[in-house]
Amino acid sequence: MGGKLLSPLYRGGMLRPSSEATQGSFLKHWIRAHPEVEPMGWKLRETAVPWVRFHALPGAKRYAENAAERAIILSRANALGTALLSAGMLCWIVQARADEAEGHGEFIGSYEEEEYEPVWRYYVREQEWISGAFDAEIAAVADDGPAYVLWISRETGGIFAPYDGGFDLFPSSDGDVEHLRTTYRDWLSDREDGL
Fold it and tell me: Which residues share a beta bridge with 124?
């Protein structure tokens, strides 16, 4: 069974632009770059875009148990985000929520994958990437909070997608993937599939 349209984010399996400035600007970009996938890290991995995953903690440990481990997660997140997005780069920040709380930014639509799956509501805002400025959001994702967040470079289209356990990065080229893999090789998975 396929996804069920609930509001304007998807129509007939495709994203449709909105008339609002930020919404329209973001959705036009997303339609062009990722026409048949939701703005979620695990959905993007299913497409043929360049991708690399890094673990948030040594030994592929999933969750922090103390302040020192939380500091490692934020240090890695900020290093990877800055490597991909560059300091001061204007980004779209897309927040997906499955709870009833209001998201940060302008509402751009919602989507239900399966009948008994959660309904995801999407919000977008624009902001420059600044190392440390998003620690609260990154920490909430790392603790398996109710929202997922993506940072998308307005300039390159590169995507930084934290999850509870690490970070999926979607650079604009395979060469950028190799550069990131080389630079941060100690944070990579030992698995052949990169997960």
Answer: 94, 106
